[in-house]
Amino acid sequence: MATTPGLERTETSAPTPRSHHARLNRQQAGAGWLFVLPMVVVLGIFLFLPVVMAAWVSVADWTGRGAPWGSNVSFVGGTNYAQVLGGQGLAGRDFGTSIRNNLYYVILVVPLQTALSLTLAFLVNKRALKGKGFYRTAFYFPSVTSSVAITVLWLFLFSASGAINAFLGLFAITGPNWFQDPRGIIHLILGGGDGPAALQQPVLFGISTWEWLAGPSVAMCAFILMAIFTTSGTFMLLFLAALQAIGEETEEAAMVDGANAWQRFRYVTLPMLRPTVFTVLTLGTIGTWQVFDQIYTGTRGGPAKTTLTPAYLSYDAAFVSQDWGRGAAIAFVLFGIIVIFTIIQRLVLGTGGIDRTTRRELRSARLIAQASIQAKGGGDVQA
Amino acid sequence: MSRPDTARHAGERHGVGHASVYIVLTALALVYIFPFLIQVANSFKTDEEATNAGLALWSANWTTAAYKTLFANSDFGLWTMNSLIVTVLVTTGRVFFVSLAGYSLARLRFPGRQGVYLMLVAVMSVPGVVLLIPKFLVIKSLGIYDSYPGMILPLLVDAAGVFIMKNFFESIPVAVEEAARIDGAGTFRTFWSIVLPMSRPALMTIIILSFQGSWNELNHFIVSTQSPALTTLTKGVASLASGQLSAGNQFPIKLAAAALMTIPVAIIFFVFQKRIMNASGGAVKE
Fold first, then answer.
1. In a domain, B202, yes or no
2. pLDDT tens digit string along B259-274?
3. Are residues B184 and A27, on separate chains, in Cβ contact within 8 Å?
4. How many domains are contained in chain B?
5. Does residue B283 sit within a domain?
6. Rounded Cα gap, residues A210 and A187, in angstroms
7. 195-224 in B: which are within 8 Å (CB) of A?
8. Strand, coil or helix: A37
């Protein structure tokens, strides 16, 4: 017999082609489930189930003792949410303050990190550049270190007599005591003081117009610089992947057509980078709304609550004040804010679902950027 | 300007040859590197010197006092041990589970596959910080609060990792696997001895990300543990930062701790630099 062992086996174990096929299908279905089972179990228990439980806690009066679904815990409706969103009392004002702080953080960090990482990517993408590897390494290194280690370093650099102020001193500038300084920078520009009486009334979440307009505090500015410093490398890699996917041929073609450097950037490269810009803006927004590790390590919300963020406030309400319902409610409100911001971005930039059309390498680069921001511990960036 | 015309033209075309690009890049690189140099330099200074002359990279009186205090008067050794245990177990588990799931979603046809995929997408859209309280609730009710299982199990699978592997498997030709299957290899054997060996680049990406992720993880350990015996480096150094060791600002000790905890991720980074810097990280078969 000249049959190969493989064929022989097929013949003996499968009397007809059809039943052989069915058996393979069954086997595959079994294996398919077996293979995804660990993932389904882990994600189900530690991601899906928790969300359901927290949803219950956010509408209940659980105090942290016993099980959250015990008989002594009762449904309180929207009380916790009202407490957070109503702007009344300390709980309401703290939430309002945390939203203001984080809003300025998002507004400043997201555009600056996007612009800087795009610039860095352009600079290190040149084919003829010498020492490319060195520059990329230098820019990316802060992205692999933990947010705890970076925060420790930042507390030192920005201390009253620290390196930053010593550096400013070289130019005869007296730097502030960064992490102890609660003054808002817009207030500082306006000359400080209490502001006009007309702006003193609480308008939203128990915060007055004047307080909303404070701007990020000097302390928050130090965190803003830190975020830009530690994320620009990751996003630089994402832009580099996109630039490499575009290739230099496109740009050369435009050059032949007589376009100058600015025109080539504005009308050829930038439009092709649009999906990546969208990705970076989205990942940036989601990440910057989740500032936690830095605050926990560095300031615990101080000075004068000007670095309080919703993520930290949620933790503090639950784990420190044992006000679990309020903590869970803040977490869900934060979730809502992130969803709303993502949708607004999608509407404004009008590029929803763009990743389906981009190349596989870009999709992978995006996933890796996402995972590596998560891996830094700078708040999970999942989108 | 004695260079031939063609050379000058080439220089212009790529925007280099201009010293300005190098000046800008070098200045920027300095800004990125200098903080780390300051960190290391100041960890070898005395308290007063670090406080008063933080910008200086040089000191006349080097001292290793900070490192000695760190090991003698804090649980730094224990923290390192805990971080190591968690990181090794999480990384090992994650590589296995994530590639299994990725393979299943990329290649195998089974009922409910679409549902699993949708669950994965849904799970990825939940911001991690929102899960702090919920995770604590589940860990507590499962009775694994303040234990290694509570620290490790929830980190064993990461949705982004599953997608990275799924993407990779979809990029390799299916023919080899079909040949193996015709030869009678079972699904797991095909996966284990045919597909996985072909997937080294993507697996390396997962290993790097998992190692970095679990080594740098902070908030999960805050909500899953409380006993000092289970404190990891991130949690321990964060407590140092808020100044719990003794009086004074203790900058050298804190900087020493931060520098030491950066070493493992720095080593991984420099060893696998090429792979990391290739932005798609080998996650797609070229």
1. yes
2. 999 999 999 888 887 7
3. no
4. 2
5. no
6. 9
7. 205, 209-210, 212-213, 215-219, 222-223
8. helix
